[in-house]
Amino acid sequence: LKLYLVDKYWFNFEKWSVSAPKIDDYEYAFAIIGDTQRVNYYYPDQFSIIYDWLEDNAESKKIKYVIGLGDITDKDEEAEWNRAKAGFEQLYGIGLDHIQVRGNHDTSASFEAFFSKDTNYTGSIVGSYNGMMANSYKLVSVGDVKYLMLALDYGADDNVLAWADSVVESYPTYNVIVITHGYLDRDGTVIDKQGNLPPSLTGGVNDGIDIWNKFVSKHENITMVLSGHVYCDNIVTSTQQGENGNTVTQFLIDPQQMDKSTPTGMIALFYFSKDGRKLQIQYYSPILGLYEITSPVTTLTLDVLSNLP
Question: Would you tell me which of 16, 80, 199, 228 could form a disulfide with 290, CB atoms 3.0–4.6 Å apart?
Fold first, then answer.
């Protein structure tokens, strides 16, 4: 068994690599950040490394957008939110926008108060449900693709899903990326009441299966769903066919269990071709300086609309 020694911790060679998995030529990238709760609360001195790395590498990696999947905090304490604020200000400092969703560890009151005061964040929001930061959307054009980044609150209720329906229908030429905290389970199925930590039983209303049936499956321009909440050491990917024959690619990205023994601060790097169809993925720990290499799928073909008018 080959091991890496990083700081005082040993890491399995078969799971980690100092070398980046090979990535073909690409046009742009998104950085996806899963649950940061454990790093933020238990390793406060390490939390900033996530955003230091993004600040230092955004240009060379062609990162155009950052997406957070909820549970920004663990205990919803002011110090945790202040650390998050410092990280987000680093993104703004290099002209990089982001979108965030509320996790079950982030109270609604704290989330709304925090982001409503962030004028950089609110300034790029195109619309929201009843003024809620947790249910809002932003528009991004990059490469030959137009994206609608749609944030849905944890276990969003039927009224929110009806609002989301109208938003997606209003932007038929945009590729919709749905971002919510609790949706996909670690076996690749959408969460139902028999799944791990179903939102309907842990503070939300609709589970992943409900969000799929009531909303996601209906729209041919929804291309991806991103979620966290259920811990898993690698990236989980699955696909489903929508009612219109389109393929929706779904992701679970949540490194909180990895962060339990030592902080990793994982960043999922999504590298896209110019037309947005080819997606290559790396999973990187800026704290350890290692790549996680056991995720089964590293290159995917997405069902997207392309070619900007």
Answer: 16
Measured between alpha carbons, how far is 223 from 239 in angstroms, rounded to an integer?
Answer: 10
C-alpha distance from residue 167 to each of 155, 182, 255 (Å):
18, 21, 31
Residue-level pLDDT at 2: 57
Q: Is residue 129 a contact partner of residue 157, using CB atoms and an 8 Å limit?
A: no
The 10 Å Cβ neighbour count of residue 75 is 12
Look-up of token digits 């009806």: 162
Flag whether pLDDT at 12 surpasses 70. Answer: no
Instruction: pLDDT band for 307, please (50, 70, 90 cuts).
Output: confident
CB atoms within 10 A of CB 118: 15
The widest CA-to-CA distance across the chain, in whole angstroms, is: 55
Query: Distance from CA of residue 162 to its chain's centroid?
Result: 22
The tokens for 39 are 């790093």
d(CA 38, CA 44): 9
Query: Cα-flanking dihedrals φ and ψ of residue 233, to 5°?
Result: -70, -20
Give 298's pLDDT tier (boundaries 50, 70, 90): confident
State the Cα–Cα distance between residues 295 and 140, nearest whole angstrom: 28
Cα torsion angle, 58, 64, 67, 72, sign: positive
Q: N- to C-terminal Cα distance for the chain?
A: 54
pLDDT of 9 above 70: no
